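Instructor's aside before we start: the two examples that follow are unrelated to each other. I chose them only because their records fit on one page, so don't look for a connection. First example below.
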Amino acid sequence: MFTQKSATPERGRPEMPVRATWLVAATAITVLALAANALTSGDDGPDPEQAGSPLVLSLGAGEAMASCLPLEVEILADMSPAFAATATAIEGDVITLAVDHWYTGGNADTVELRSQPGQGGLIAGFDFQVGQRYLVTAAQGTVNFCGYSGPATAELTALFDQAFGA
């Protein structure tokens, strides 16, 4: 005789398929990892390991101008790291900047910007020049373009001061 298996186990709860169990576990691990990152990525002052080492950022693949958001203070204020620095060297595909002011997200004295081979110091419509001061933001290790990084003009400096509170 054919017997129908109950949809609920003896304890009164529906059974969770194995696949759903793994999905719940993976989601929980992801949430915990993100929470741990948020708790440990605060700006709690100088990091002894970073203080002597340069921060290294990528200039990306060169298609940064493909889709640009309009330059707005509210968007700028959410970007980190953000800093003011002077270009001290351009050697091949590495631009070295001496940081004179951190707006947010760092404390290194030096930042190295690394471009794609052959790209040199040219990024998104401006060319880095030794001795010139720049305002730079980045996201996930890549420099932001579309006006969110560039030569330290009076206008861009005023926007950075407004976004980050001089």
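Example two begins here.
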Amino acid sequence: MFEVRVQQADFDINAELASLSRDNPAIGAIVTFTGKVRSSDKDRPLIAMTLEHYPGMAESQMAALIEEARQRWPLEAARIIHRTGRLTPEAQIVFVATCSAHRHAAFEAAEFLMDWLKTKAPFWKKEEYEGAEAQWVEARDADDLATARWDA
């Protein structure tokens, strides 16, 4: 099962894992990543983060990333869920899960998907801090550097 979803609703990690690996005895390794809204950035208390996306294009790009991961590693299943809307600290933002017969492929594929998701998928974040006007988050050089290793 290979799936991507963009949604406002929260997700249940355990339910996602159960449905992803159900009835597939070839799966010997499952690796997950769950991103959450931090409560602060550089010692500034964060009130909320608003995530927007380009509908249709975001899902298409996420599906293309999973397809590329499938070409690189022997995956049995993978899922990416990305939330949109206004989220407060500790809210879940993103879920990435990869399933393979062996851990090495599952770990690398999950890391690949997260690295590229941060730079390729059309999502935008606006952060609200106490005592300041909400501002859009700029792309980070560290995210581009993380993806560079996958180009080799």
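The chain has a mean pLDDT of 93.
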